[in-house]
Design goal:
single chain; flat; 86 residues; mainly alpha; 3 helices
């Protein structure tokens, strides 16, 4: 039962990534693209955590943590660029 729910969650996360990718490509403004990028990275971190669960490898969670930190840093840099320029 738990694996079925996790598979459904993975499918929903993949759908979220695809919709965010569409917004990233189509987005008329830089802020739309930044938000779509952030959504894609958060969903990707969740997918990495699911892969870690199904593969039984705890090291993938470290990869997700580092990816989350880099994602946060990149969104802060892009926000600073939008606000004032570099």
């Amino acid at each position: 039962m738990v694996n079925t729910i996790l598979i459904m969650a993975g499918v929903l996360m993949a759908l979220g990534i695809l919709l965010a990718l569409l917004r990233f490509i189509k987005g008329p403004d830089v802020t739309d693209r930044t938000i779509a990028f952030d959504v894609m990275t958060v969903a990707s971190i969740s997918v990495i955590a699911l892969i870690s669960h199904f593969a039984g490898r705890i090291i993938y969670l470290d990869v997700a943590l580092v990816y989350g930190l880099l994602s946060f840093l990149s969104v802060v840099v892009i926000g600073r660029y939008i606000e004032r320029g570099l």
